[in-house]
Amino acid sequence: MSSTSTPFEFPCQPSIAPPPSQTPAPLPPQGSPRGGGSPTAGCSHCTPQGQPPGVSAGQGLLWGSGTGTSPAAAALSHSEPSGFLSPGRCPADAQPTEAETAVWNQVNAVLEESQGVLAELQSYTGAGQEIREAIQNPGDLQLQERAWSAVCPLVAKLKRFYEFSLRLENALRSLLEALTCPPYPPTQHLEREQALAKQFAEILHFTLSFDELKMTNPAIQNDFSYYRRTISRNRINNLQLDAESEVNNEMANRMSLFYAEATPMLKTLSNATTKFVSENKTLPIEDTTDCLSTMACVCRVMLETPEYRSRFTNTETLLFCMRVMVGVIILYDHVHPVGAFAKTSKIDMKGCIKVLKDQPSTSTEGLLNALRYTTRHLNDDTTSKQIRALLQ
Known about the structure:
Elements (H helix, E strand, L loop, with lengths): L70 H7 L23 H22 L5 H9 L4 H40 L5 H7 L1 H22 L3 H18 L6 H4 L2 H12 L3 H16 L5 H20 L1 H4 L5 H21 L13 H9 L3 H13 L11 H6 L2
Helix pairs in contact: 2-4, 2-6, 3-4, 4-6, 4-7, 4-10, 5-11, 6-10, 6-13, 7-9, 10-13, 11-13, 13-15
């Protein structure tokens, strides 16, 4: 997935050329437009009418009116930071600065591969028929060989998915380091490093997409279980199979733990975020949680503000925004001492749950289940009965 392939942009205002008698106001020193463009010169996504040229309405999010602060910024300004909601920015066109390039390139390589991973997972049909025939006819060697031949390439594919999760974990860690490092607070980082913030969102979109596909495909665990049983049986019979060199016992054990999770990619990222916080004891935990809560807030405003929702003609845009919101909530809940559901949380959980429940259940049931079953603090005493009731 390239940095421009996902129909999601952090909020921005359209760039409007001033009348000839006026000169453009200088941008603040922080978060200057990527690529050196002038805030008045326009970009490939913004038009004076606030509609991305050549893009259906809703594919670009939070296009403002072009005057003053965007409604989204106003909605946030009373209680939450909104620096990267300022006028004159279009994160959809955000290009990494020289300081961001190393991290951006590392993450972009992973994101480009993620599209292929999703396509492979979506087309994963399994070897159920071959496995059933082999189990029902244990004495038929031809059926045993047929099942084994069908399962081995599938297990190799599952190994690639698992190895990709490790690269995704490293990419997330690099982004967390870049978006929380001193001397800037997280909200300034999100404003300054918009290209990296967009990559963070794309990682979460991929993660929730992968896990949704995995949860609805029982063939994955069935195939892998058959593979492991066959390997074990052949070891007992002192038979060596070529596939063991592809997925040895140690790798098989790690893959088994990975696929046993209902949401394996999300579990990987949650563990990675928790580990990042625990290993960086000199970094205030708020630097990480504020980054996550700000992203959750922006997504919520996108979803609940009628002015912006009315432009969501692209269903994938809506799903993207919901997945990112749920992803950052879950990461926040894993690393914050009291979690996302407490009254002191910087995430408006009632608002986030409400916007999810306002969508068709076919689109959001998996995301609501992720909040129900992959968070840590939902059942804590600090969680209000109202929030628990919303998730029932």
